[in-house]
Every structure is written in C-alpha cells, then in structure tokens.
Amino acid sequence: MSLLKLANVSKEFPVGGATRVYALDDVSLSVDAGETLAIIGESGSGKSTLGRLALRLIEPTHGSVHFQGTDVLALPPAELRRLRAKLQIIFQEPFESLNPRMRVADIVGEPLAIHQPNISAADRRARVSAVIEQVGLAPDMARRYPGELSGGQQQRVGIARAIVTRPALIVLDEPTSSLDLSVRAQILQLLADLQTELGMGYLFISHDIHTVRYVSDRIAVMYRGRVVETGPSERVFADPQHPYTRALLAAALPVDPDQELPPARLVGEPLSPTQRVTGCVLYGRCPVSEEKCVQIDVRLAPIDADRQVACVKPGAPGS
Ligand SMILES: Nc1ncnc2c1ncn2[C@@H]1O[C@H](COP(=O)(O)OP(=O)(O)OP(=O)(O)O)[C@@H](O)[C@H]1O
C-alpha cells in the first residue's frame, strides 16, 4: 500500500468574480515508504499547492487524498491532528518557519508536546536531545534561539522538528533552495541518511534539476498544474519524452547523445494561470505541437510498465 496517494486532484483558487486560478488539474500520484518522489517544474506549476494539499493544509476542489489508506479529506479535526504526527512538512525558508522567540529545544519538542502529551518531561528532553544530535547539531545548540544560528543550522532544526514524532512521510518544499551550495549538499546528505535510517517517504518539491537528480527515485514533471511526465528518475533523465521535460533538462544539463529524442526548446509565452485549458497545457509553447493538440484532452498515458507521458506525439520531428 502507498503511504500517500493523490487521485485526480484539482485545485482552483477563486481570485475575484468568476475568475479562477487553475493551480492543479487532475493530478494523480503516490509515494511509497523509503522512496523519494520529486516534483519538478517551473515557478507557478502547482508544486507547493500539491504539497500543501497532501497535508490537507488546503483542500482540493476535486479528487481524493489517502495517507496509509486513510481518507485524509474525511478526517475530523482531532484525527487530522493525530495524522500530522506521521505526515510532516519542511519549508524552504527555515528562519521564517521557526519561532524566533523559542529556544531550539522547545521548537524541536513542540510536536511531541502536541502529539504525545503523555510522555514524561524527562523522556521528552531525552528524545529532543537525541534528535538534535541525529541531525548533526551540537548539544549546546539546544539552548540557542533561531536567530543565533546559520541558515544550514536552522534547516537542521526544521528537520529535527519534522522527525521528532517519527513521521512516515515528509513533504519537503524546496528545503535547500535558500542555502549556499556547500551547505545544500550537507543538508541533502543528511536527508538521505535519515531516510535510510528511518525508512521515511519523501515528497520532494524543487525547481532545481541538479538537486532533483541527486535526491529522487522517481520524478513527476509538472507544467501548469498538470503532471506531464513521470517515471524512475534515472530513466527520465537519460531519455526524457515529453517536449516540456526535454526542454527543462536541456536548459540545465548537457544533452546525452544516446537519448532517443532530440532536446526541445520552448517557444512563445506561458498561458495565464486563469485560463482554463482543455487540450494540451503546453500548446503555444511547444515546438512540436499541432492544431489538434489544442482540442484533444492530452492526459498521462503509459509508455511502458513504469513511465507515463502526457503527449500524443513526443517523438515528432522538428523539435
Ligand atoms: N492562495 C492562492 N490564491 C490564488 N492563487 C494561488 C494561491 N496559491 C497559489 N496560487 C496560484 O496557483 C498557481 C500554482 O502555484 P504554486 O505556488 O503551487 O506553484 P509552484 O510551482 O510551487 O511555484 P513556486 O516554485 O514559485 O513556489 C500559481 O499560478 C499561483 O499564483
């Protein structure tokens, strides 16, 4: 059974009058224990909306969200709070997500106080100390305030707070993009080590191809609220099929001469997020689109046992 399963999820934000932002459109995905599914796509493609939806910080307009087989959207508030111990989130800006007036030990211990109020103060202190050490912070950091720490140390505190309740899944929303390159590598290594140790699933949101390539087992490539390609990362990186994936990878990485399809370069301008799209979302920017792409409903379809692509003609010439 998947840890997290989103089925046919859509999210529309009303933005005045009858106007809506179509942030997510019919997205289905799952994350298993111990694996990292990376969500990649340019700004505004719907990545953060997806992450917030997975935790029910916002609710979808359509579709379902299941966590360990439980219908998350049907949970009453008390049970949703209980589930949050198993389903955590780490944000991009560690400092903004940490209360500047609380000491590190209290920040890390807070989820325990909420989710496991019956454990003794001594046990809680012991758990907090162990987790602080587990994320590579010196014991004396426990007494400090977030403002006294570096960006990398602050993110370690964010990670400690997320793992203290032993979650099964963590949503990581651009967890390293505010960090320097060298610190970024250390935090990614820490996240990988913790995943091996604790067997957590990660939903890893990023717009950075290099980070995604390093961390992910599978990827889902998003454009304008839809997943346009998904599969095992190694294979998607080696042989991208969707014109958007081909353009995204070609802009950031040297093109592998063995890949089946040539790289693509996007043309034109993106559609407004308030425009409802019935055909292909890349129409107008796609170098291989045809008249029919504006009309037909191009959804993800399997191209083999574990890859799916939303394009009727990924291999078209002229790209
Ligand atoms: N509360 C909201 N009200 C209105 N529109 C919203 C809201 N939240 C997100 N959006 C819009 O939904 C779309 C998807 O946004 P989202 O933040 O999920 O994208 P993203 O891929 O995470 O982008 P970024 O990398 O810039 O964070 C965007 O057009 C955004 O402006």
Describe the protein in words.
Pfam families: ABC_tran, oligo_HPY. One of its GO terms (molecular function) is ATP binding. One of its GO terms (biological process) is peptide transport. Residues 4-249 form the ABC transporter domain. By secondary structure, this protein is an alpha/beta fold. It has two domains: 2-216, P-loop containing nucleotide triphosphate hydrolases (Rossmann fold), CATH 3.40.50; 246-318, no CATH class. Helix content is 31%, strand content 22%. The chain has helices at residues 47-54, 77-83, 94-97, 104-115, 121-134, 151-163, 181-198, 209-215, 233-238, 243-252; strands spanning 4-14, 20-31, 36-40, 62-67, 70-71, 87-90, 169-173, 201-206, 218-223, 226-232, 301-304, 307-309. The strands form two sheets. Strands 6-7-8-3-9-10-12-11 form an eight-stranded mixed beta sheet, sandwiched between helices. Strands 2-1-4-5 form a four-stranded antiparallel beta sheet, covered by helices on one side. β9 and β10 (226-232) form a beta hairpin. The mean pLDDT is 92. The protein binds adenosine-5'-triphosphate.
